[in-house]
Amino acid sequence: MKTPAIRSRTFITVFLKEVRENLRDRRTLISALLTGPLLAPLMFVMVLNIALQREFDKADKSLSVPVIGAEYAPNLLNALKAGGVVPGPAIADPEQSVRKQENDVVLRIAPDYATSWRKGEPVQVELIYDSSQRDANTTVERVSNLVEIYARQQGAMRLVARGLSPGTAVPVTVARRDQASAQARGVLMFGMLPYFFVLTIYMGGMYLAIDLTAGERERQSLEPLFANPVPRWKILAGKLAAICAFSTLSLLISLVAFGIVGRFVPVEKLGMELELGPRFSASVLLMSLPLIVLLAALQSMVAAFAKSYREAQTYLSLLLLVPAIPSALLSVFPLKAQDWMYAMPLLGQHFGIMQLLRGDGLSMHQLGLCMGGSAAAALLAVLVTAQLYRSERLAISG
Amino acid sequence: MIEVKDLHKTFGTVKAVDGVSFRARDGEITGLLGPNGAGKTTTLRMLYTLMAPDQGQVLVDNIDAAVDPLSVRRQLGVLPDARGLYKRLTARENIDYFARLHGLPEALLKTRREALIQTLEMADIADRRTEGFSQGQRVKTAIARALIHDPRNVILDEPTNGLDVMATRALRQFMLQLKNEGRCVLFSSHIMQEVAALCDRIVVIAHGRVVADESPQALREQTGENNLEDAFVKIIGSDEGLAA
């Protein structure tokens, strides 16, 4: 009979062997340490940077807008020029040009502009644009605002000329007071961040999970392994620990990467704030720990059902869509977080991470719910997988 | 010593093993002979507790496999039909992994491993990754891995499958050595020559049943055939699946 001290080495033996073996597999390494954790932050930053750059370009750059009938309204045109608009030559078919995206917006001034103006009648200028071209919306907004400001100024001057206070024409004014913090405004753009983290965890452990169950079965090494005098649940525990180690490492790399690239995104120019520092990373990591175990167990479970490596890969790629559901749904149907939602795996992490991003901080109560709920689910998944591991058929490959 | 009493195992409607009993003694080589699909592998799998029998009992050194499977596995060295090496590990690392699962202290592990590497003449491949190993190199590594804990009982499922003549001869020598060390050696085969050359006792299995359990000499006398091959065909009732 062996001493208990020697027996307890099983877990660490299996763990070390699986880690060592998979460190030698290039595909696993690339997926867990490179593409998985780094692709998301890179893409994220690139997309964000392009979007931000466009906004800034439009706001600062002088706008070239074709004007039809410019000669009828020289004063209006001067006001527009002062606002950074460069009036372009008239074009024949403005509707077609806008639809073809040759121009974002075309300004048309009617020939009777001058006559009506002199009579003091309201005059109309037309803005021709295509609102389905989201790209053009900022331009349209800008031109429209400039025209309206000019109209208000002229109106006020007419009132003053008639000895009236300009205020008489504006009985009510709206003053907007936006209560969103600089961070909260950022959240709108970063709604997919929780999904990126879950994805990273998932990708980090996926190839390992396949290799350690379906792969080992396909290579027929499970049978000799189970002939050793160790309980199967200890072998499973070592394997799960190896999967968790890889997915945790993956998440860590991703968090560090986000922390670094977060500094290069000029979010403050949008009046936003993005806090991706060490405190944020530590909180995300803590919240994700039970989720990491849960995903490792789920992946192993699915892989144990598969007859081959390929089959497992197919199943797991489909399962990859599941963690996307909460984040995707919530970006379409915003929900107010209830207590029970924090206790749901995935959903809880989503709300938790969003809350950290908003800069609201996470209460111990919410953190407890988030970790407790996921931990319970993880325990259940581990137990079911352990049960699966006891089946006779698992070890037999052919 | 390995004792098997009235084993039964059914998969769906197929009776893979249908009442197999035999005894493999220490210091003897016992051969499990039968055509392909006779139930040899399933019987062995129940021996090393990978499967539980539907009925019957397995005793290894008088330990009941149903009661204490871990202790039974500790008494056994097993070379399964599926060799299943880890191809990204070297031969040495493969051996070490199983040694540690057996809880061998590191110092003992090292001496045993090096002794086995020497006996099996695999020093030249010991530090190569097992990916790309020849069939013979694979079997050597798997055997070293199975015997690292110095088991009293050794089970080999079709050990010479896929080996060339030289490797087969070396393996037979090795099995005789195990026997001379006083171990109980049980191996399965569908090759009569091999069984005849090695075994002290032959258990013939066909259609999930034991049809003969004798010494080679007694087998010849029982059937009245001088030639072992003819004796087998007579016992099994056909020469289907038997290789000379």
UniProtKB/TrEMBL annotation, chain A:
Stated name of the protein: ABC transporter permease
UniProt KW keywords: Membrane, Transmembrane, Transmembrane helix
GO molecular function, one term: ABC-type transporter activity
Record's keyword annotation contains Chloroplast: no
Domain of life: Bacteria
One Gene Ontology cellular component: membrane
Annotated coiled-coil segments of the chain: none
UniProtKB/TrEMBL annotation, chain B:
PROSITE patterns listed in its UniProt record: ABC_TRANSPORTER_2
Superkingdom of the source species: Bacteria
Keyword annotations: ATP-binding, Nodulation, Nucleotide-binding, Transport
Domain ABC transporter residues, every copy: 2-232
Statement: the UniProt record of this protein carries the keyword Nucleotide-binding: yes
Keyword Transport applies: yes
GO molecular function: ATP binding; ATP hydrolysis activity
Signal peptide stretch: none
Family per record: Belongs to the ABC transporter superfamily.
Protein name (record): ATP-binding cassette domain-containing protein
